[in-house]
Design a protein that fits this description.
The chain is an alpha+beta fold. The chain has one domain. The longest helix has 52 residues. The N and C termini lie far apart (76 Å).
């Protein structure tokens, strides 16, 4: 066998291997970048909610008085990315209230969990019992998509909460 005939398949094999490595690395970097972009998108939506809720002022509806008018409300539309694992207002995704509801937990698939700690906002999931009242659970979303959420100031005894619910 001639010397050039032997080296041609080796050069071809090495070229194919290098191209495969480049494609694999490019795909890996793209997946990491995609997760980082999704996380930034989710953080932007969470910051939008916090900014809107922090500027809600006014009346806190008394949940023990059925004749009491609505508390200050804000309807906020959020868009959650396709790679979301969860976002939880007021506690962890397992349904437990954390730090009296003064937090937002969130996680993107393949990334670590993050928490935003809040100072003056106590989130609770709203439940309908004739009127909307605070539950002892956080408000958890585990699917991507567009959501139209209602945030309402309520008072239960001396405790003030922001309950979250959706009427859709």
């Amino acid at each position: 066998m001639n010397k050039n005939g032997f080296f041609l398949p080796i050069k071809l094999f090495i070229s194919i291997a290098i191209i495969a490595i480049i494609i694999t690395l490019t795909f890996s970097f793209w997946k990491v970048a995609e997760k980082n972009l999704a996380e930034k998108e989710l953080e932007k939506e969470i910051d939008k909610v916090i900014a809107n809720v922090e500027t809600m002022s006014g009346y806190y509806r008394d949940v023990y008085n059925y004749l009491d008018e609505n508390g200050s409300k804000r309807e906020i539309e959020i868009t959650l990315p396709s790679s979301i694992e969860y976002v939880s207002f007021g506690g962890n995704a397992d349904g437990n209230i954390v730090s009296d509801g003064k937090c937002i937990f969130y996680k993107i698939n393949g990334k670590s969990m993050h928490v935003k700690w809040l100072e003056n906002i106590k989130f609770r999931k709203g439940i309908k019992n004739g009127i909307w009242i605070p539950s002892e659970e956080p408000f958890v979303i585990k699917k991507a998509g567009n959501y139209r959420l209602i945030f309402e100031n309520v008072r239960q005894g001396n405790d003030k909460f922001v309950i979250i619910y959706s009427q859709t």
